[in-house]
Amino acid sequence: MKLEHLPGPKAQDLVRRDGAVISPSYPRGYPFVMDHGKGSEVWDVDGNRFLDFMAGIAVTSTGHSHPRVVKAIQEQAEKFIHISSDFYHTKWIELSEKLNEIAPFQEDALVFAANSGAEAVETALKLARYHTGRSAFIGFMGAFHGRTLGALSMTGSKALYHRRFMPLMNGVVHVPYPNPYRPLLRQNPGEGLGKTVVRYIEEQVLGQLLAPDDVAGIIVEPIQGEGGYIVPPDDFFPALRELCDRHGILLIADEVQSGMGRTGKWWAIEHFGVEPDIVTSAKGIASGMPLGVCIARKSVMTWGPGTHGNTYGGNPVSCAAALATIELIEEGFMQNAVEMGAYALRALKDIQSRHPSIGDVRGKGLMIGVEFVKDRESRAYDAALRDAVVDHAFENGLLLLGCSKSVIRIAPSLNITRQELDEGLGIFEEAVSYAEKKLRG
Ligand SMILES: Cc1ncc(COP(=O)(O)O)c(C=O)c1O
């Protein structure tokens, strides 16, 4: 059902006031002004209802304001809101124990708690330098790791993010991500794309640019997020792990977007049968309360008191929200992500078969990318069509979010129902038909 006159009068007024006082650096796609939400439904300030297929960029993993998360937050807030990371408290310890239990490695884990994904990444970079005594890093084209200067140095998804912020961290080299739909490197006969990328790192980067014993870590998103929801081929991570082992380089899995059950496993890297040395998590970990964590093997987190810290780390309210979130994911939401993810992937591939503008549909669990192209032969990006789909969906009651040049990411809450998916996918297909007609006649 088309929602009339979006944005409504209250939304219009708030957008105007926002423009007067809030930093213009935030990218705002369309004027959704939130009033409240429940599960996968949200309402704007004018009373319009929308389905949410992006969960605040893959953050509200248990849906908006899940009662158990709200209760955990309320109970903790009544007891105390802050004490600072110089002291001890139960929820922080319990959360770290739980993260140790689910960390994607056999070895025991130690956890550093921060407030955001970028800060978790900063921690991982500093820890890798500290532990190895080396300074250089390898990252990937298309990667997003955050916007603080260290994390930004590893980000490689848009020139705009770097423009006028140079110089960034020294000793960083970006290599192509193994993108099966858009491979950048020429494969040797019989060689899988994952192995090609690792061979490129070995030959071109370690052979010509960075001495292996200067490289502290390779940071990689197990499924690339902002870069286009790209699933690497199965041969990639085993080859990358082997390369890291051979050169004493730490493998850092940035699971800020892909972790916490979103792909149907706690961590996306578990799909590839490889153990990293350091993992970062944020976004979905606390259902929307600010929390980022850097989880490392015990033998890697070797720094001593004072080497790294913060004021808010281990914030009790965020930790309480995270514990409730993890319980809910464990009790059934992760399984729901497996089932609803498979269902949505099938449905989207079906939609693709009816719409030539959709070049590729890929993903794991509820982390699905739909890529729009001018034609399937050339695979030329069609950003205008993608944007028209997002706008039309909004006007018809569905919140979507783009990524990369012409991709829409489907990243709803992990407890989305089949009925909600059906409703949203109906609006999605209608929006694709509308955009194809409008832009291609
Ligand atoms: C993989 C990844 N790492 C790091 C970040 C940065 O997280 P934050 O925005 O919380 O700083 C993001 C955010 O989108 C991300 O997707």
Domains (count) = 2
The small-molecule ligands in this entry are:
pyridoxal-5'-phosphate
Main pleated-sheet profile: 7 strands, mixed
Helix/strand-derived category reads alpha/beta
- Beta-strand segment tally: 15
Overall 3D form: globular
Percentage of residues in strands: 15-25%
CATH hierarchy: architecture of the largest domain: 3-Layer(aba) Sandwich
Please bin the fraction of helical residues: 25-40%
The number of helical elements comes to: 12
Distance N to C terminus: 23 Å
General description of the model:
The protein has helices at 9-21, 55-58, 67-79, 90-102, 117-132, 149-154, 159-162, 193-208, 236-247, 316-354, 383-395, 418-440, and strands spanning 34-38, 41-44, 49-52, 109-114, 136-140, 172-175, 215-220, 250-254, 278-281, 292-297, 358-364, 367-372, 398-399, 401-403, 407-410. The chain is of the alpha/beta class and 441 residues long. The chain has 2 domains: 9-65 and 332-440, Aspartate Aminotransferase, domain 1 (Alpha-Beta Complex); 82-314, Type I PLP-dependent aspartate aminotransferase-like (Major domain) (Aspartate Aminotransferase, domain 2, 3-Layer(aba) Sandwich). The protein has a 7-stranded mixed beta sheet with strand order 4-10-9-8-7-5-6, with helices on both faces. Strand 14 (401-403) and strand 15 (407-410) form a beta hairpin. The two termini are 23 Å apart. The structure holds pyridoxal-5'-phosphate (PLP). The site of pyridoxal-5'-phosphate has 15 residues, from helix 5.
